[in-house]
Write a structure and sequence with these properties.
4 strands, 39% helix, alpha+beta, four-stranded antiparallel beta sheet
């Protein structure tokens, strides 16, 4: 009886060890958060009007800490009025960097913004996605 218990314990321990040994975790913050897009608005005449806001989506940029995708809301005056994120890191320093990057974008009205210290990879991915959206203007 004792030999059976020892044999089962050893077998289960070995199986558990193999499971842990073969596990390959992804980088921190690799999950993304998808934000639902707002429904498109239409003008009173049933078509799109030139004075309406429009949205532009940037490219999907992946880095070892997560995925970033920017959506810009462009006003009728062709200014960036809002920066949304369709995908963003969910953990790590990149999470804290996003509001700073959004504020800098609204101030600069371009992709010529500084990276956030400690969140360089996320900042660079943000700028690439932002520039792709601006290029789609």
């Amino acid at each position: 009886m004792k030999k059976t218990i020892v044999a089962v314990t050893v077998a289960l321990s070995a199986a558990g060890f193999l499971g842990v040994w073969q596990y390959e975790p992804g980088p921190l913050g690799s999950e993304t958060v998808a934000v639902a897009a707002p429904a498109p608005s239409s003008s009173a005449d049933g078509g799109a009007s030139e004075s309406a806001e429009r949205t532009l989506d940037g490219s999907v940029e992946r880095n070892r800490y997560g995925t970033v995708q920017v959506r810009l809301v462009i006003s009728a005056e062709d200014k960036i009025s809002e920066v949304r994120l369709l995908q963003r890191p969910t953990s790590g320093r990149g999470v804290d960097a996003i509001p700073t990057l959004q504020e800098e974008t609204l101030t600069a009205q371009s992709a010529d913004i500084d990276t956030v210290s400690g969140a360089t990879s996320t900042s660079e991915s943000y700028v690439k996605s932002l520039q792709a959206a601006l290029d789609a203007r």
